Amino acid sequence: MLFFILAAIGVVCTICFIMDSVWSSVELLTSYLKPFFLPLEEQSLIKRFGSWAAVTGSTDGVGREYARELARRGLNVVLISRNQDKLRNVAAEIEKESAVKTKIIVADFSKGAEVYRHIEEELKDVPLGILVNNVGCQYEYPARLCELPAAKAWELINVNVGAVTMMSRLALSGMAVRGRGALVNVCSGSELQPLPLMAVYAATKVYVRSLTLAIREEYASHGIYVQHLSPLFIATKMNAFSPRLERGGLLVPDASTYARHAVAALGRVHDTTGYWLHGIQYFFIKVAPEWMRIKIGMYMNQDFRKEHFESVRSKAH
């Protein structure tokens, strides 16, 4: 009898794991098939969420390309980042390319609490329909906790934890009043396990996932769509410690390719990597037990660390 009980528990656990792993793919497929069966259903991001979107960390990499993709779909875009000159350049580029309105807000999220009063003031008259919490901070290279400068540790916390918390709070209040809106929180595949040599970064991403899933439930009854976006490696400056990652490849898309796929999933899938090849990788990573993922993460980051110092030495000569 005990054997059959344990076997039944094992079957149930396996089914739950498979459903959890493939659900985002089913959700995405269903969303693409809906227009064929429900042709009158409105798919426009503007009509579903509103005409204004804001993207944090929008002067480089995924943030910049994500803002461009939203503009191509006709949304006006608020660009939020710390470099005023870059913000102006990206705004001009978007307005020329897509003939939409833009607004720039200069904010250095590493400064912590002091930046949000200014952002709130700047956004008070903007009926924000979509907020993309993209801004993020990464290690300069893989390092043990005590090697990580205290200032960098605080920057990781202020940017990766503080920004997503306070910006979500700021945007959700208005969305709840209007009864619609979309919140996209950009996480990372590093959420899947503790990550040696990038311990603080991975821990911040676990926080982002937890926060996102919780506020999704809190605001579901208010008509607000909350997406957990969890990419793996992308060829951006965030991964400058590895020349291999910066060069990119089939499994490491450039920011433009990634953003095009990710925006296509907006409003369609609640939990996604945003890129189909990352989705396959994510599935197989989850299959391995956590202790194995931690060991693999340690080995991977040791290799990236070695690559970084070899690159530094070669540039010095």
Characteristics:
317 residues, alpha/beta, seven-stranded parallel sheet, 11 helices, 11% strand, globular, Inactive hydroxysteroid dehydrogenase-like protein 1 isoform X2
Question: Topology of this protein?
Answer:
Blueprint: H1 2-37, H2 45-49, E1 52-56, H3 61-72, E2 76-81, H4 84-98, E3 102-106, H5 116-123, E4 128-133, H6 150-178, E5 181-186, H7 199-219, E6 224-229, H8 243-247, H9 255-264, E7 271-272, H10 276-287, H11 290-316
Parallel strand pairs: 1-2, 1-4, 2-3, 4-5, 5-6, 6-7
- The end-to-end distance, rounded to whole angstroms, is 71 Å
**Sheet/helix structural class:** alpha/beta
Order of helices and strands: HHEHEHEHEHEHEHHEHH
Strand order of the largest sheet: 3-2-1-4-5-6-7
**DSSP strand content:** 5-15%
Major sheet summary line: 7 strands, parallel
Q: What is the mean predicted local confidence, pLDDT? A: 90
Q: Low-confidence spans: pLDDT under 50, at least 5 residues?
A: 38-42
Tally the beta strands. Answer: 7
Overall geometry comes to globular
The percent of residues in helical segments reads 55-70%
Number of helix segments? 11
> For the CA atoms, what is the radius of gyration?
20 Å
